[in-house]
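Database export, one record per block. Field names are fixed; values are copied verbatim from the stored entry.
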Amino acid sequence: MRVTGYCGKKPLHILIDSGSTHNFLDLHIAQKMGCQTEAMDIVSVTVADGNKVQISSKVPKFSWSIQNTNFTSDMVLLPLGCYDLVLGIECLVTLGDITWNFNKLTMEFFVHGKRHVLRGATPTNLATARKQHLYKTISYGVHLSLISLQSEVEGSLLYYLTTHASQQVLPPDINSLLLKFTYVF
């Protein structure tokens, strides 16, 4: 479920993900906000497309707010791209009993005796990225994935496109070949 939170006055695009074991903060957001990082034992994290990413730093006691309620958690640093913050089980277990309505995209819980109802962002809040913005985003080294399933008369076609967080430098000969035949690649 996607919600908006804040770190001070800066809005944060937050994904509440019950399938994530840890809390993650986007590496570039942490750098922009000047967060104090701390080394940690290397952890291998499996991301959405199945690739494993090695993580070695965190932001201890990161503070943010949702609906005027303050929260503090350790955040593992990872280039997220689409979200500024991912709240996983590590955060959700601190909320006690949670009532989720996925049909209405609501999440209800109590903090300090006060009832909270989070309302998730709806698909109408999605925006189409322009080509220049997409290239700029990819140059930051974020991980992006796209899956498209198209049904045809004789079957279905599955298209899959992904970029990886680490920039790979191609040998000049291969790069010029790829550029020469961009219509193929």
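Remark 1: The chain has two domains: 2-125, 131-180.
Remark 2: The chain has four helices and twelve strands.
End of record.
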